[in-house]
Amino acid sequence: MLVSIIIPTKNEAETIANIINGIREVFDQLPYKLHEIYIVDDSRDETRKVAEKLGAIVIIGGGRGLGYAMFKALKVVSRSTCDVILSIDGDGQADLKEIPKFLSTLEKSNSDLVLGSRFLSKGSVKYKYRMRNRFGTIALSYILRMITKLPLTDSHGGLRAMRREVPEELEMIGTHSYVQETIIDAVEKGFKVTEIPSVWHVRQFGSSKVVASIFSYICYILPVLIVRGRYHLKGFFIAGLITLGLAFCDLGYVFFDTNFNFQAMLDRQSFHLFFLLLIFGFNLFFFGLATELLSLALKGINKNEFR
What we know:
By secondary structure, this protein is α/β, with parallel strands linked by helices. Helix content is 52%, strand content 13%. It has helices at residues 16-28, 47-53, 66-78, 99-108, 131-148, 165-169, 178-188, 214-228, 231-257, 262-267, 271-305; strands at residues 2-9, 33-41, 57-60, 84-88, 113-117, 159-163, 193-197.
């Protein structure tokens, strides 16, 4: 089995050498062959120079978010001759000794995508995990369970292994939602997804780019998950039906209250609320439809951009 590695980085000059060297040491002991190590980078420090000196291939992320950068890297690597792609966070928190476990699970369980979970087994997180971070992962995991119908426990594991066919077929609409959209897209396309326990170490250098701007992250992620879960259609269409129903209820009340006297209704200017609700209801319908068309267009644009 030929394995390629993708490491997303942003100002990880202090950790990237240890990660690249650690990966090579692990593969020296494995029956699997290491094909290439790629970093997809949006750094302003020396991360790229350090990685290139150690033989890694650098892909420029594009500065549009982790999701866009990883989507770009996955499409590039999926066109290579590797069999499996392993993504590893560049912050040093993932345990590289778990690489064999991910690859063997992928091979033995006939899975297409193997995800690491910090919360599937007790004690996997090797430091005091912040409550706001835990709340965020619980909320996102719940949304993923609703969409995929899988018993997922983590939305942000630092290690994941996938067969090359998964990123070949991957379609995304968000620029920051790679970790969630790859799971949703894989399930939609019939790929087998497996979650296994994974250790998470304390970060030694720098700080999390996600946690540092958690409100912005939620603003990026939540609309994408709503669209990927098709909740925009259900939500806007149901809201539109309710609004239209209220409009005709109001019209019926006015008819009844004026004894079906059209001139009396005109004198009372009774149609204002009816037309307001009618227009608002139709707008909700069309907004749901427009959102669906936009999501399809974004998928097409992203797919063609990296063809």
